[in-house]
Structure formats: C-alpha cells, structure tokens
Write a structure and sequence with these properties.
Blueprint lengths: L6 E8 L4 H19 L4 E9 L2 E9 L6 H12 L14 E8 L2 H7 E3 L4 E3 L5 E8 L8 H19 L6 E13 L5 E13 L5 H17 L8 E4 L9 H4 L2 E2 L28 H18 L5 E8 L8 E5 L8 H11 L4 H7 L7 H4 L20 H7 L2
Parallel strand pairs: 3-4, 9-10
Antiparallel strand pairs: 1-8, 2-3, 2-11, 5-6, 7-12, 8-9, 12-13
Cofactor: Mg(2+); K(+)
Subunit structure: Homotetramer; dimer of dimers.
Pathway: Amino-acid biosynthesis; S-adenosyl-L-methionine biosynthesis; S-adenosyl-L-methionine from L-methionine: step 1/1
C-alpha cells in the first residue's frame, strides 16, 4: 500500500438481512406505525435479536394502538426470513415485548406548553453531524455509494433474479478507494462482498455469479489490475443472520451515514421519532451541508449541531469546510443564519418528520437517496443561500 503517494478511504454497508439491520427496520417500522395513527407520537423503541428470539423494548407516548409483534413479524417476512433451514423465521421466532410510557420527566422537557399548543424541546442532549461533498452527483462520498450499491444489488438479486435461489438474506460489502494527492479517486484498492447462501451451490460457482451479477455492474469502472477482490473470504457463509450473530438497533451508525468520512456524535437514528435530535438534527445537518455545497460555497462541508435536553434551540451550530471554501467562511455562517432555523419544532416541520417514512431509511443509508421523497435531500435552499451572500 503506497501511503506516500496515495490516501485510502474505506466504507462498508450491509444488506437488509444483516442482524443489526433487521433490528433497525423493525424499530423504524414501529415508529411509522405509531406516526401513521398519531403524528404527535413520541417513540423510542429498540430491537434485539439472537437466534430465533426477538426482544422489543422502549418508551412510547401516543394515542395510537400498535401491535408491535405483528409489525416485527411482517418486517422479518418481507426481508426474506421464511425458510426454516435458516434457523430464524418470521413465523417461528419468539417475540418478547417490554414497551412502556415515556418518562414524564423527559416529556415535560419535550412538550413545552399545553398539549394543544406547545413547542417541541430537544428529547436529549447531543451533538449531531451532517456532511456533503461534490465528488458525486448525490453529494455523498464515492466509497459510500459503491458500498451501498453493492448490498442494494445483492438484495435486489436475491428477490428478483435467478441468483436468488442460492442466496440467503445476510450480507455485507466493503470498498477501499485509492485517492491521489489532489484528492481525486484513481481506483479501487480492494473490495469485499460477503453473501450468505444455501448448500445448493459451491463457493467457486457462487463467486463467479457474484462477480458477474453484483460486483462488475457496480464497481467495474473503478477496478484496476491490482484491485484485490474478496468474495466470501472465509470460504463458506451458510450460517448467518441472527443465528450467526446477534443484532441490535443502532449498531450500524457509520453505515447509516457517511462511511467514516465525517464525524458522528454517537446517537443512532432508528427507532426514534423526530423529537429525538439524534435523528432530526442529523437530518437537518445533512440538509444544510448539502445545500451549502450545491450553492457553490465549498467542495466539502460538515455541519455540527448540539442541543441540551429540553432546549428549543441549539447550543451551537458549527460549519467545517476543510479548506475547500470558495467564499469567506463568515459569509457562509451569515447565509445559513438567514436561511435556516434550527429550533426542534421548525426542523420537524421543515423536514416533514411527523410523516411515516422511516422504515425505508433503515437500510442502504439515510442520506444520498435523492429520488425517494426525503425532504432533507432536497436542494431547495440553494437559491436562498446564494441570494443571502449577494
């Protein structure tokens, strides 16, 4: 590895059937179900799966009535855990629940005012980050797009092609890109694809099919003669899913965001409604960063927002441009202050976070998906930002 002339950036992703992603999707499907009946629901639900046992726990304040066990089984079935040979199925898994009312001590800091006319305070303290770069059309790091593209392709093939008769739901990808001293990508140093499969195919045949159907369509433009390709590197991946590893909500926070190319405050997104700034402020930070880059103010941007529990407004908003700015940083701050409001209430309204939409975010990343109706991916503030610096 030539670290004198190149830098190397790595990102990973996981399929919808990865144990942690099973839990993320279940938790977010539960959030959606509450919001569908009661848009003012406050939800914080975690999922834990091991073997053929699923546990759901958390706190909820809502007028909705939701059968969380039924929702969990439907998610597991839709992912594709229906074959008893896998050892974990939607029909047979044991589901334990421990969901209770949100703490009144927390609620009095979130609901500020009467129940009919109130402002939303932050549900917790925290620091949330958002990032954008102009190296790709969707303003995401290239390595993230490639890693997510591989697992998305793997899931699509399992559900929709003849390769699916051999594949099981669990899987992962990882790509390492080589960049020159000007920060330009020059080619893949290595890539990894791990795909769970049944006993009906040998590893050599599976590797050939995965190369043809999954890897080449996504990564071939970036592959070089010396690119190292690892496909099911242990030589066998039959045992997987929750039978192979436990799963837990919120354990893939870098997969969910920018693949280690930006900082992370540590708070996961899934299982939380918009009053939880772990989620809402991270979405807002992405929204602001993306519009800043699209406005031409800089090539790379990281936005950090911090809150105190019960606060309506943030403690601080910080913008980092990594030396890539095209206008003075003070002018960027001034434009952001003119165009955006960072109150929790305004973020929820602006980004439409009372709408059921979170199950879809729980796999393939929360950002960069421009054609799926997520408000935080829109570029509708570019003109306002540009006007603000004239």
């Amino acid at each position: 590895m030539d670290n004198c002339h190149y830098t190397y950036l790595t990102s990973e992703a996981v399929t919808e059937g990865h144990p942690d992603k099973i839990c993320d999707q279940i938790s977010d499907a539960i959030v959606d179900a509450y919001l569908n009946q009661d848009p003012l629901s406050h939800v914080a639900v975690e999922s834990f799966v091991s073997g053929n046992v699923l546990t759901l726990a958390g706190e909820v304040s809502s007028n909705a009535t939701v059968d969380v066990t039924d929702i969990a089984r439907k998610v597991i079935e839709e992912i594709g855990y229906t074959d008893p040979d896998i050892g974990f199925t939607a029909d047979s898994c044991l589901v334990f629940t421990n969901i209770h009312q949100q703490s009144q001590d927390i609620r009095q800091g979130v609901v500020i005012g009467s129940d009919d006319d109130y402002l939303v305070g932050s549900g917790d303290q925290g620091i949330m980050y958002g990032y954008a770069t102009n190296e790709t059309e969707n303003y995401m790091p290239l390595t993230v797009n490639l890693a997510q593209g591989l697992v998305h392709k793997l899931d699509f093939a399992r559900h929709n092609t003849s390769l699916g008769k051999y594949l099981r739901p669990d899987g992962k990808s990882q790509v390492t890109m080589r960049f020159d001293n000007q920060g330009r990508p020059v080619g893949l140093s290595s890539l990894i694809v791990s795909a769970q499969h049944n006993e009906d195919i040998d590893e050599a045949s599976l590797r050939q099919l995965l190369r043809q159907v999954i890897i080449d369509p996504i990564c071939k433009p970036w592959m070089k003669e010396d690119t190292k390709i690892h496909i099911n590197a242990t030589g066998r991946f039959v045992i997987g899913g929750p039978v192979g590893d436990t799963g837990l909500t919120g354990r893939k926070i870098m997969v969910d965001t920018y693949g280690t190319l930006a900082r992370h405050g540590g708070g996961a997104f899934s299982g939380k409604d918009g009053t939880k700034v772990d989620r809402s402020a991270a979405y807002m930070a992405r929204y602001v960063a993306k519009n800043i880059v699209a406005a031409g103010f800089c090539d790379r941007c990281e936005v950090a927002i911090s809150y105190a529990i019960g606060s309506i407004y943030p403690e601080a908003v910080q913008i980092q441009t990594f030396g890539s700015e095209h206008i003075d940083t003070c002018r960027i701050y001034e434009a952001v202050e003119k165009v955006f409001s960072f109150s929790v209430n305004d973020i929820i309204q602006l980004l439409d976070l009372r709408r059921p939409q979170f199950r879809r975010t729980a796999v393939y990343g929360h950002f960069g998906r421009e054609h799926e109706g997520f408000v935080w991916e829109q570029l509708d503030k570019v003109q306002a930002l540009q006007d603000a610096v004239k």
